[in-house]
Amino acid sequence: MTRFRAPTVLAALLLTLPLSAAAVPPAAGAQPTPSVSAPAVVRGELPHPSGPFAVGQDVLELIDQNRPDPWVPSAGPRRLMVSMYYPAKAGTGSPAAYMTPAAARMLLDSKLPGNTIPTTALTETRTWAASGARPAPGRHPLVLLSPGFTLPRTTLTGLAEDLSSHGYVVALIDHTYENTGTTFPDGSTLPCVMCGQLRSPQDWAGLARSRARDISFLVDQVTARSHPAWRYSRTIDRARIGMAGHSAGGAATVPALLADRRIRAGADLDGTMDVPVPPTGLGGKPFLMIGHPLPNGAEDPSWSESWAHLDGWKRWLTVAGTNHASFTDFPVLLDALGLPDPDRSLSASRALHLTGAYVTAFFDLHLKGSPRPLLTGPTPENPEVGFHP
User: Fold this and answer.
1) What pLDDT, in 10s, does the model give residues 34-57?
2) In the predicted structure, residue 25 carries a pLDDT above the cut 70
3) Closest Cα to residue 322, out of 296, 335, 341, 302?
4) Helices marked H in the chain — which ranges?
């Protein structure tokens, strides 16, 4: 829950991930990031989803004809790419790719100046979803997922797959021009126009509110009763919708809950709340906060302020041994590339397991009405997870 980064190899590489409020400028006289030679590349593999369902995946392009793009108005209407994950029939479909070659190249080149790591290091990451799989019977809650600023949506693939394996439809969105590269069906891959452009708390709040508009449009499109954008929209239970996000995506959860009555519950994964919870609360909507430990036991001021104003069910969890990216796929990718991550002591697979377990339990409780003792307090099975008083 901070933009400050320790001066580690990890910070110089894949974790240039501003979280929210005030960006930290480079120190005077700072040396440029050194070029990185390619380590031995081992194919990365996301943890196997923990639920009983197989997972299907579809990819959608959505165009909001009623809204010019907020960052590049000359581009015309707001265009968005979304990956839909859903409970599927086992043995149907074909293996889903982790990300497109063009998006992978832009991500690597952006984060690693002088990069020589091959694109296949990312594109061949092992996922568990099947593209075009037939959906499992029934109607399921919908969870919307928003990634961190500068990050493509694929960095939340592990969480999306795990949620879907537990009986959720998941809509994982790219916020165009806010990440290193978004590939569209016409073959274009649009860059991060907004990278480096957010310089004040007002800028970050504007980003969060813009993302909330993206999210509401996404809900409109995939739950429409007439001509929905997704072919399997019938599998969505429109009365049970939640949202979670990492970093800036977590920050966007608050304005989305405030603006859209259809979104009933929200989870923030290590995101400073650029739009804080107002003194009037969130209308009683439940809210989950999961973060990494800050130095010397510090707390993100936006979390402390918002915690006091939450007027519904709430939990604030801190996971020992994690860093800002631990709630995403990045530690898996770093391990596969053989790159060090000295400010993380919890293994990549364990961090993703805990993230999936607590986020799933939260939505099980508030969208399915299923009691989850995991959320009542610390457990011997998960000693890394601390509960805020």
Assistant:
1) 444 444 556 789 999 999 999 999
2) no
3) 341
4) 9-12, 101-111, 120-123, 157-165, 201-223, 248-259, 301-309, 330-337, 348-367
Beta-carbon-side half-sphere exposure of residue 4 (alpha carbons within 13 Å): 6
Contact 128, 157 (CB under 8 A): no
Q: How far apart are CA 85 and CA 70, in angstroms?
A: 27
Select from 262, 336, 301, 314 the least CA-distant residue to 98: 336
CB 323 within 8 A of CB 343: yes
Contact by Cβ (8 Å): 208, 268: no
Q: How far is CA 330 from CA 257, 355, 375, in A?
A: 27, 13, 26
Cα 266 to Cα 25, 251, 254, 260, 298, distances in angstroms: 31, 10, 8, 12, 24
Q: How high is the pLDDT of residue 15? A: 40
Residue by residue, DSSP assigns 94-150 as: EEPPSS-HHHHHHHHHHHSTT----THHHHT-B--EEETPPBPSS-EEEEEEE--TB
Give the pLDDT mean for 239-250.
98
- Could you tell me which of 170, 179, 109 has the C-alpha nearest to residue 144? 170
What lies within 8 Å, CB to CB, of 286 at 6+ separation is 264, 265, 266, 312, 313, 314, 362, 365, 366
Distance of CA 99 to the CA centre of its chain: 15
Task: Compute the chain's Rg from CA coordinates.
Answer: 19
How many CA atoms lie within 13 Å of 6's alpha carbon, on the beta-carbon side?
12
Quick check: 192 and 150 in contact, CB under 8 A?
yes
Q: What is the C-alpha to C-alpha distance for residues 213 and 226, in angstroms, rounded to an integer? A: 21
